[in-house]
Design a protein that fits this description.
By secondary structure, this protein is mainly alpha-helical. It has helices at residues 10-30, 32-45, 85-88, 91-98, 106-111, 125-128, 159-171, 175-191, 207-213, 219-233; strands at 51-57, 63-69, 116-118, 144-146. It has ten helices and four strands; from the N terminus they run ααββαααβαβαααα. The chain has a two-stranded antiparallel ribbon with strand order 1-2. The chain has a two-stranded parallel ribbon with strand order 3-4. β3, α6 and β4 form a beta-alpha-beta unit. Mean pLDDT is 89; it is low at 195-202.
Length: 234
């Protein structure tokens, strides 16, 4: 679904992007000291590179590198394969995630226009390929640092519920709506300190894995979509 097809509010058309730029510049300027401290700590505790970059689908499904502070080590087994997330995630990395400090570098994504302050969270390419055409309409807007799904359960809700919240958001994007999401995000992330974990797991289950575990797709369809994702990233 292309952005031009959607009925956009005046706020979304003319005000949201300039506000994103102001917010991103303000965050980078005000928290420059924090960026420096976290950079040094990540370098000492986890090594290089300090930033974790991963290609994600953005506006109109154009791929872009989302940037975060690194939270895991590069520990590998005897075959050279990365160890499971729960092994590589350190106490320091877990703290960064709980406090959402690993997300700070995304201010630069907002500044360059690949992200917005508020919008559907950028998911993995291997998640996108499993979405229905209706669910993929979430990509008709810039992905956000936070969104409706993040303040309405985050990873404690099912994938289908998360995508429903994303679709609800894009129906009518307003200034007051975005302000409310920002306030709810601050409350949950910094006051209640809600983390990203779902039922004790370190990372949320991939959409395809969730669909397979729920019996909503076949093994053949699962393999087919995984191949499609790899081709998009090639």
């Amino acid at each position: 679904m292309k952005d031009s097809v959607r009925n956009r509010t005046i706020y979304e058309k003319y005000i949201k992007r300039p506000l994103d730029i102001v917010c991103a510049l303000s965050a980078i300027f005000c928290f420059s000291w924090l960026y420096l401290i976290i950079t040094i700590l990540v370098k000492i505790k986890l090594g290089s590179p300090v930033l974790f970059k991963q290609m994600r689908p953005g506006l109109n499904e154009k791929l872009f590198p989302v940037c975060k502070f690194r939270t895991m080590t590069d520990e590998r087994d005897e075959k050279g394969e990365l160890l499971p997330d729960d092994v590589r995630l350190t106490k320091f990395g877990k703290w960064l995630r709980i406090m959402s400090l690993d997300e700070l570098p995304e201010a630069f994504n907002i500044l360059n226009g690949t992200m917005s302050v508020i919008g559907p969270r950028p998911q993995l390419v291997r998640d996108m390929v499993f979405m229905t055409d209706e669910q993929r309409k979430r990509h008709s807007v810039r992905p956000g640092l936070s969104g409706l799904a993040q303040v309405n359960g985050r990873n404690s809700i099912s994938w289908e519920e998360k995508l429903e919240w994303d679709l609800k958001y894009i129906k009518k994007i307003t200034f007051l709506g975005d302000v409310k999401i920002i306030m709810d995000t601050v409350l949950k992330a910094f006051v209640k300190k809600e983390g990203i974990n779902r039922e004790g797991t370190v990372s949320d289950m991939d959409f395809g894995d969730w669909l397979l575990s729920e019996g909503k797709i076949s093994q053949e369809k699962y393999r087919e979509k995984q191949v499609e994702a790899k081709k998009l990233l090639a």
